[in-house]
Amino acid sequence: MAGAAADRVVDGPTPKHTQLRAILRRMVERELPPGSAIPSERELAERYDVSRLTVRTAIGKLVDEGLLSRVRGKGTFTAARRMELQLYLMSFTADMRRRGLVPTTRILGATREIPPAAASSALGLGGADEALGIRRVRLADGVPLAVERGWYHPGAVPGLLDLDLTGSLYAQLAERYDLRFDHAWQTVWAESADRETARLLNIRSSSPLLVFRRISSVRGEPVEDMTSWYRGDQYQVTMKLDRNSPDSGPLPEHGGRS
Fold this sequence. Notes:
Blueprint (H helix, E strand, L loop, with lengths): L1 H5 L9 H15 L10 H8 L3 H13 L3 E4 L3 E4 L4 E2 L7 H7 L4 E11 L3 H7 L7 E10 L2 E10 L16 H9 L5 E10 L2 H7 L6 E11 L2 E11 L3 E2 L22
Parallel strand pairs: 3-10
Antiparallel strand pairs: 1-2, 4-5, 5-6, 6-9, 7-8, 8-9
Helix pairs in contact: 2-4, 3-4
């Protein structure tokens, strides 16, 4: 009887949309595999004898939490399992192909200009020195997953902006310059998507993002300062922690937000 009561929406001090959200959460977590469609708003309203507004509010909360996702013209689905973000030096293109997905890239801009002070410092440039800047949206199977903003040392990769920026930069850097990153510092933090980033990633403003700033070097010389904004509903990070960590040296002064 207790289980049956838990799957009903009743009058009382707890708002009906909160009760329905708990019911839908149990449905998502226990019954429906990732990518499954949930019943329509009309069906849920009839099943639990509540208004469409109550259903819409409950679903909206679960979308904000990343448990559900709306697909325009198709319905609402349980969120796909989050992909593990790799904590080693691998290109987005290679990572997606390894997962059996088709990577594509949309170019937002490619310029030669004076970068922000943090990027200048990270790349060892003077305050008036220009860097090569690339901004891209990375997609897998047509789904936008990340927005990237990268700054590159022009002395290390002259002609970078003439490359095919829709492909793997790492592969082209290896082929054209015989350049392979062998060391990087990476800093991770959380942000809420601003309106522009949300538009590019096809998510709602204020949706959670995982932000990675990686400063990559070759033989001790910094070449790339890359910041990537990943969709929080698509990615997670798992790290192995040992009791005794080897001494890896001091943290770089240029680590953190750019």
